[in-house]
From TrEMBL:
The keyword Transferase applies. One of its GO terms (molecular function) is methyltransferase activity. Gene3D superfamilies: 1.10.287.1350, Vaccinia Virus protein VP39, Winged helix-like DNA-binding domain superfamily/Winged helix DNA-binding domain. The keyword Methyltransferase applies. One of its GO terms (biological process) is methylation. The active site is at H255 (proton acceptor). Keywords: Methyltransferase, S-adenosyl-L-methionine, Transferase. InterPro entries: COMT-like (IPR016461), COMT_C (IPR001077), COMT_dimerisation (IPR012967), SAM-dependent_MTases_sf (IPR029063), WH-like_DNA-bd_sf (IPR036388), WH_DNA-bd_sf (IPR036390). Residues 119-332 form the O-methyltransferase C-terminal domain. Residues 22-96 form the O-methyltransferase dimerisation domain. This is Methyltransferase. Signal peptide: none annotated.
Amino acid sequence: MTNTEARTTATDVADRDLIGRLAFGSMAAQTLRAAVRLGVVELLGDAPRRAADVAADAGAGHQPMTRLLRALTGLGLLREHAPDSFAVTPAGALLHPGRPDSLASFVRMFTEPAIVRAWERLDDSVRTGEIAFDTAFGTDFFSHLAQHPELSADFNAAMSQATSETSATLPHAFDFGRYASVTDVGGGNGTLLAGVLAAHPGLIGVVLDTAEGLAGAPDTMARRGLEGRYSLVAGDFFRSVPAGSELYLMKSVLHDWTDDQVVTILSNCRKVLPPGGLVLIVEPVLPEVVDSAAGVTDGGITYLSDLNMLVNVGGRERTHKDFTNVCRRAGLALTAVTPLTEAAPFALIEAVAD
């Protein structure tokens, strides 16, 4: 075999391995889901345990549990210290629901059959541009959530967990101290606003969301000792945004909606924006040309999120140019985009009245 042939063979093997890992991706996701639903990480605890003991506590069979634990080990979430003895890795520990940085609800939500089912129709959405979720369930995603309180609670918890990293990073990436008031538009249980208020004692805040979205906000604020520094407004950002703040903040809101809907949300913010006020948008900003190396590094998550918006809600992830256009249509001028490196792939987008 020549050197060229050897290199070609090695490349071919790597390429085939990549396709294999991607094809098995949904199986890996369901393995995570099973681990969360069975409480595997909680049952393992802080020291190695025998699979038989974990199985007994979970009400599962010894052999099937061993196979699940070995699959989780293969995924890097557990370690097998000795035959039939397993311990949790730092990554696996993030599946413990009792941790403040837990991703258990995030995993539960994004492996939820209601989310996954629409993906089975991705090719239809690509052909037609229509929202696959609406076809599969006969209603839109957010109406479906409203009709299923347990799923809605999981969704809100997942959004909170997905926001925790940004909540720790954003308060130090922007000079909130120059302002007295901020409204978090679509702020859910207040995780993001709580991080901002805790880091800036002179600031007061408002959370705008649906009544369901706000359900956990009092507890979030109480845990941070923020009583008296916030108010909650149940409303619809497509109809109006409460006046009275200098800053209007929104994270992972605009990507849920079409350009026309985004313009409506931003226009409502523009209507109440005081002189010197700012609209702050926290979203990924896609490059104009895909950085293939970066995509491989993060597993292409931002682009998968873009497809998730397509099939489940009809929104999209956007480029700098896209954000400039929707801001301009809403009477806003985009003035700065700052990558939040500690909360990648998110960036902070600043816009002022045009």
